[in-house]
């Protein structure tokens, strides 16, 4: 059984070339605090209500990188459980202090599970 702890972040896709517009809207208009740093894929990260919103430029197409990310307590066990059900696991860029992987549900929604290093 996967032990879910909380929603960690949501990745929202934005059109290519719109990063500064997203920064202005979410930072200046909505007043969200930007999380500084060099993030995977050149993403913008903002804090909101105890979670993060990640914004990443993406070309329109049939498969999107948008996804919710859930913090869990047992990443290795979760991976084994999903693989036992024939669900494929994929990996992406590394984020300091976090281990993570992705999978798709039966409806092709991308989902991330992550665990913070202790």
From TrEMBL:
Pfam families: Glyoxalase
InterPro entries: Glyas_Bleomycin-R_OHBP_Dase, Glyas_Fos-R_dOase_dom, VOC_core
Gene3D superfamilies, sorted: 2,3-Dihydroxybiphenyl 1,2-Dioxygenase, domain 1 (3.10.180.10)
PROSITE patterns xrefs: VOC (PS51819)
Domain VOC: 6-116
PANTHER family assigned to the protein according to its UniProt record, in alphabetical order: FAMILY PROTEIN, PUTATIVE (AFU_ORTHOLOGUE AFUA_3G15060)-RELATED
Name this polypeptide is given: Phage portal protein
UniProt source species: Larkinella punicea
């Amino acid at each position: 059984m996967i032990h879910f702890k909380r929603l960690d972040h949501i990745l929202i896709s934005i059109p290519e070339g719109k990063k500064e517009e997203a920064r202005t809207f979410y930072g200046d208009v909505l007043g969200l605090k930007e999380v500084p740093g060099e993030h995977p894929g050149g993403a913008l990260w903002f804090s909101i209500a105890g979670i993060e919103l990640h914004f990443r430029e993406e070309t329109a197409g049939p498969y999107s990188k948008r996804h919710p990310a859930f913090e869990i307590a047992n990443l290795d066990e979760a991976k084994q459980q999903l693989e036992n059900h024939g669900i494929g696991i994929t990996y992406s860029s590394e984020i300091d202090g976090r281990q993570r992987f992705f999978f798709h549900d039966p409806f092709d929604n991308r989902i991330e599970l992550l665990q913070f290093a202790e």
